[in-house]
Amino acid sequence: MTTPAAILEVDNVCRTYATAAGPLTVLRGASFTLAAGESLALVGPSGSGKTTLLGLCAGLDQPSAGTVALAGRELGGLSEDARARVRNETTGFVFQNFQLIPSLTALENVLVPLELRGLRGAAARAAEQNARALLARVGLGGRLGHYPVQLSGGEQQRVALARAFVTEPRILFCDEPTGNLDGATAAVVTELIFELNREKGTTLVLVTHDAELAKRCGRTLRLRGGEIVADAGI
To answer: Which helix (H) or strand (E) covers residue 44, if one does?
Structure first.
């Protein structure tokens, strides 16, 4: 059997921030490789470095030491514009606070990543059809023209899911995707994440405090004090 190619390679990554009290290291010596199609949960107590590691993996931040390669490209050697292109071409994001643009409708929010690609003509029309289909897929086919303020928290997170998948990303990063949702709504969003993940064959990396959500992933990295202390499921 052929081993899936690595989509994410993290090698001895550290992240230190300058503070008034002196340097603060929040991540030290993180190393792991993630194969295409895997699902990975990053777990650990608050302040353990989970979100920092997620941001470094996604190219939202740069390590103080070590390297991160995403889809075969070492991010540290790229300009911010180049990293942004890699993110747009390769990744999708779902955040705890939804990160929707208040002045845009549900449909317009989903189309934002595609508009950043500068699509025109037939490509733009096909993209809009795909966005409409995804919103219908997450149960919001009748809410395309609604603004975020007119949607519940669960509905906003479903818009965010549709936006994350509209570019057909190779890897999806989720930061506490159910953290602001009640139990029943969180269960619906969780099912959608994994259903869409299976349907699209997307690699999944998520930060969560939810043990049940973490169990749905094929692999778990546990962090404590800025270090990876366990790697289960490999």
So the answer is: none
Alpha helices in 60-200 (DSSP H): 80-90, 106-115, 121-137, 153-165, 183-200
Q: How far apart are CA 190 and CA 22, in angstroms?
A: 40
Say which amino acid occupies 8. Answer: L
Each residue of 100-143: pLDDT tens digit? 999 999 999 999 988 877 777 787 888 889 899 999 989 999 99
- Residue with structure tokens 């997307």? 202
Q: Which residue, among 106, 169, 114, has the nearest Cα to 141 in the 3D structure?
A: 106
Alpha-carbon radius of gyration of the chain = 18
Could you give the angle at the alpha carbon of 109 between the alpha carbons of 106 and 115, nearest 5°?
140
pLDDT at 170: 92
Say how far apart CA 153 and CA 64 lie, in whole Å: 36
User: CA 87 to CA 90: how far, in whole Å?
Assistant: 5
- Rounded Cα gap, residues 171 and 207, in angstroms: 14
Token readout for 106 is: 């549900």
Q: What is the pLDDT of residue 4?
A: 65
Q: Which residue in 212, 170, 177 sits closest to 193, CA to CA?
A: 177
pTM score? 0.90
Domain boundaries, the chain: 6-232
CATH class of 6-232: alpha beta
Low-confidence stretches of the chain (pLDDT beneath 70): 1-4, 234
